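Exercise 7.
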Amino acid sequence: MLARQTFRCARPLSQSFRPYSTEAPKRKSLAPLYLTVGLAGLGVGLYRYSSDSATAQAPKQRESTFTGGDQGWVDLKLSEIEVLNHNTKRLRFELPDKEAVSGMHVASALLTKFTPADGGKPVIRPYTPTSDEDQPGYMDLVVKVYPNGPMSEHMHNMAVDQQLSFKGPLPKYKWEANKHDHICLIAGGTGITPMYQLARAIFKNPEDKTKVTLVFGNVSEEDILLKKELNELENTYPQRFKAFYVLDKPPKEWVGGKGFITKELLKTVLPEPKEENIKIFVCGPPGLYKAISGAKVSPKDQGELTGILKELGYDKEQVFKF
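Solution. The predicted structure, written as tokens, is:
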């Protein structure tokens, strides 16, 4: 994140110099000699400082744990468990090399796999890590448990030091700084994870000036995943990041949207379809896809654009379904 800086006013120049012109004459000083020696020493010091700084700032090349292609499954050990709410945990998995990074890129996901104890068919599901792609030593998954969801139930029942198999990364949408002037993220539930991955990358890069609008639907307030991280982005970049939350079962004091994500809400907060160089990303449960954009056919086939976005006049090329 970009740290906020506090600037203090410098003292007036008249207070920064001693009034030598008013002092009585003194005997000849050795100051010029000391000054010459001091400047020479300063020059050496500056050279060393610059050299050391350049060395310290040089980016460290780290190995990638996941390289895609023909790489097989990689087993990672669960090292930490954090309970986020009544049905969601943050699971931290150690990378085999503490100096290595995951190898994830924006935007991409990983496959997870486990084999049931009864020896049945392996269960495989995709997940998007929420930790920074440059973070060495570990990666985090935010996992919501679903009734009769074999992978989410398995991960919620895992204990520290148990292992899970991973494979990837799986490319989703190749992001480049300033690829679009304005992007809109429409998410539901755990569909926020690829959205957060994308938003984090944008605001992490000082060269990327993309504007981001998030519309995030959930059942209750405690279901809003990554709320702390999203609030931090909104507070740090208020001119470029706007978040709109919609709850199906809001508390009495709730001031955000109520019910489902509606056509009226999207028409109000999204940029006009006629605006140039915009992109709308959609990710969530099947019901959200059906209402907002229509489902995708396969990882390589986005399918036709339907639903609210079609009704509002957006075209297929302006929408990407995670």
